[in-house]
Design a protein that fits this description.
By secondary structure, the chain is an alpha+beta fold. Helix content is about 40%, strand content about 10%. The chain is built from 16 helices and 10 strands. Its cofactor is Mg(2+).
Amino acid sequence: APLRYTRQEHKHTHTRDPSWRRPPAPASGYALLPPPSPMFHWSKWKKRMGASMSSSSSKRPVFDEKEDVNFDHFQILRAIGKGSFGKVCIVQKRDTEKMYAMKYMNKQQCVERDEVRNVFRELEILQEIEHVFLVNLWYSFQDEEDMFMVVDLLLGGDLRYHLQQNVQFSEETVKLYICEMASALDYLRSQHIIHRDVKPDNILLDEQGHAHLTDFNIATIIRDGERATALAGTKPYMAPEIFHSFLNGGTGYSFEVDWWSLGVMAYELLRGWRPYDIHSNSPVESLVQLFSTVSVQYTTAWSKDIVALLRKLLTVNPEHRFSSLADIQTSSYLSSVDWDEICEKKVEPGFVPNKGRLHCDPTFELEEMILESRPLHKKKKRLAKNKSRDNSKDSSQSENDYLQECLDAIQQDFVIFNREKLKKSQDQMNESISPPETTDEAETETESENSNLNMCSSVCSSTGSS
């Protein structure tokens, strides 16, 4: 039976109700703003950490290349976020001193919440893909307690955070986000992947302001004309055909659902609320009726061309919806876009996050240090104590045989991944087998690459952390 899983409306604590409206300006002309959140001075902290690390660079460890990457290869710097059953922190790889984000998920909690299959599927997908507008996986490993994913570190915060901070995104800024996400979604389609959870929470900005798609926890792979059928996603961003398929059966849905979500997100960034009044507790039956009776309202302040593009993304019938890069490129709103420059991140974003602060809730670090019963910075000592305690127990006396069987299965089936090592081996292989190219051959290859780059799918491979 297909996995039927509906994520809550938002997994972050800083989301707001879709009925939210920006407050009108008072008579004085000054806008009412909420109290500022505590500022974490990221630039000062980064400078302090850099000085600390440089002073110890002479003692930089050298790890055996044959050794699998593990928790000891990283220095934990600070917590920056959490999801329904995972947490995220900034780490630095001890040998290269490169900075990453590390997501870690407690094995026992994953078993208890029946999330192991989702974690394994996310790992399977991330290990096979790489793109300039995705948050790419670099390492995966495990220990007795947790599963770890080490990914690109993006310090600009997610779009949900900036919406909650009352950032007003211009048309030009949203236009760039649409282009960058269209590039990412077209690449995912070429890899047979439906993301199923495109929303502001899952779009992270780098320090320059470019958008990257993250969180493949409920993504799925479909091949050879297959269709997805599960009720999966975040309700306010889910396409009509997902609800229709769940309610009435039929042929299911495909890649078009991600492009609907892109349209909802673009509308929300421009206006401050979503095009449909949908909540996590909205009945599926009422949503099917909603899409057939309620039309989206567009403000006259927007240009006619962007309204036309949003209409094509928010078309209820998936057969008539824009759902590929080729479709998007026919839009008059994007006629002047240089797609080569988009893929090379040469287009300057209209919104650049403040480099002087860390764009996340500062209470994540306090929770990790004070409230967390198993803090990450005490893991080594805790695991050693647990190992000593386990050795003194009678192994036949298990408090929960089923749980232990599940944990053993995770330990056995988990796939360790090292993109750094993979890239090195690929480079060495290419150097050893590639014959010298003639000038004509090199020109032909360059022309072919430029042609592919215009479609912005497989060519937009990642250049590393941004």
